[in-house]
Amino acid sequence: MGCRHDSGHSQREQGGRETLEVLVASVVTMKQLLEAGVHFGHRTRRWNPKMRQYIFTERSGIHIIDLHQTMTRINEYYEMVRRLVAEGGTVLFVGTKRQAQGTVEQEATRCGMPYIHNRWLGGTLTNWATIKQRIDYLNRQERRKSNGEFQSLPKIEQLVIDRELAKLNRRIGGIKTLTAMPNLIFVIDTQREELAVKESNKIGIPLIAVADTNSDPDEITYVIPGNDDAIRAVKLITRIIADAVEEGRRFREVEMVETGQVSDDELAELEQYLGPSTLAKLQGMEEEGQEGEASELAVPAASDSEEETTGAVAQADQSQTGEEAPPEQAEPEQTETEPVSEEG
């Protein structure tokens, strides 16, 4: 994108942690929205009157969406998503229509979030315990395959296992990284993803969705008024949400390195993500902070001894005693597909 997400400098809290209090410029321009066709709604006869507040005008029988509201909400929700992910939250990307499938898979994978792009399975949220069992089974079988445990089996049995894994990956492969229900769901076309909307509302998981002029905004927690049919519009908005996720993840990973709350495997992954020089610099900052705390806590033993000893009673070995070593610091707890009309 053409704009820099944050123009301004970050501040520091006590303890050296970087805050998310930044001066934020617009993450999208009016020109980008217009070029992507985000302003095209559906034909006037197909509208939902509840979307009236988001409609700017009508032209040639087509509703035109108010892009000022779209841009305002994109900027607002960008910050919300970034903060959520920085605090450890998870965003589930959902888009199963042809115009959204490839983009949802690509952008969710890029930012490291789960996604559903083929079909929403009934009970994904309302029957989470069963879905979680299938996810665990899929992950366990894939680990066994990668470890070579199936190589000794007959070819026909290996073929059956491969077919089963392929089927499971088509159904739940995009969410196999989920260990708990998501904190937020991003949806393209709430009309198409009606089941996902119903389940999220029933469970109480907030929704952020691209709402066209035929949508019901009452079902959506965070409405982004826009064209949910044009490929370029879908790509633009989905990319912005993924960028917000990526910034939030980067902040969280940097914070985890600074506080030492990261395992060896995670360090290797972070080194690939942040780069070895950046990671080494962050670890150096952590060590300097620990040494500074240790020096403040260190108290010379001789000063205590001098207060307790009178001039008349001098200890012969007092000259041999130096300052006590600083207390050891405990380690931190590891705790285009086919062309699509620009009209909606």
Automatic annotation (TrEMBL):
Gene Ontology biological process terms, A to Z: translation
GO cellular component entries: cytosolic small ribosomal subunit
Coiled coil feature spans: none
InterPro entries tied to this protein: Ribosomal_uS2, Ribosomal_uS2_bac/mit/plastid, Ribosomal_uS2_CS, Ribosomal_uS2_flav_dom_sf
GO MF entries: structural constituent of ribosome
Pfam families: Ribosomal_S2 (PF00318)
Keywords assigned by UniProt, alphabetized: Ribonucleoprotein, Ribosomal protein
Highest taxon of source: Bacteria
Region (Disordered): 283-344
Biased composition (Acidic residues): 285-294, 330-344
Gene3D superfamilies reported in the protein's UniProt record: Glucose-6-phosphate isomerase like protein, domain 1 (3.40.50.10490), Helix hairpin bin (1.10.287.610)
Family per record: Belongs to the universal ribosomal protein uS2 family.
Name of this chain's protein: Small ribosomal subunit protein uS2
